[in-house]
Design goal:
32% strand; alpha+beta; 4 helices; globular; Jelly Rolls
Length: 236
Amino acid sequence: EAVAEADGFDAETEALLATREGGRISIAEAGALTFSVHLAARSAVMSRVVSHPNLLGVVADLVGPDVRLYWDQAVYKKPEKPRRFPWHQDNGYGFVEPQQYLTVWLALTDATSDNGCPQIVPGLHRGGTLRHRYVDPLGWECLSEPEGTLAAPVPAGGAVVFSSLTPHLTGPNLTDGVRKAYIVQYAPDGAEKLEGDWQTGPPTGRTRCDDPTRQPVVLRNGSPVPAAGAPVADGP
């Protein structure tokens, strides 16, 4: 059910990209790499996914008793235009404090070394958020060719769980099928996103990560908060 739901959002994203110059919006590209964001706020099915007890048990152990959904997106890697997503930390895309929120990388199809499963660098999360540079058109990069990398293939329905500070990448999809993933991120209630360029100076402001529709509370005092029963927000 979740795969079919995500497929529908991906079709909408592809249609949107087709209206843009070069079929691109930022690092997304039609027929190559698509991002469909805030699905839990737009779909009761995906809202139930991010609030699943199996996920929230892990989240409670690793994040704490009071947690919000921070971000969620379906990421589809298409076979027609293989794209490597560079080494990055999720906190390098949007600096959040506390820095160490949690990323749950859910495989909607089998994720293998051939179609772009996650690869990580264990241990580097202890160093905090690394400096990133923008590599057009691939995105932000914090490392080039690090040593000690670990591939994390995962079957459909499985998950890879790591810190927002863990450097990771996904390789190109060299198969004939679409690699489908749903990335869900959880942050402690009260977390704030720093505004401005955190790499060049102090923040210009702080925004609480508590949007009531896109960043709902999922754990309160260690207990799951029931998922919303209906979509409540539009797309990006």
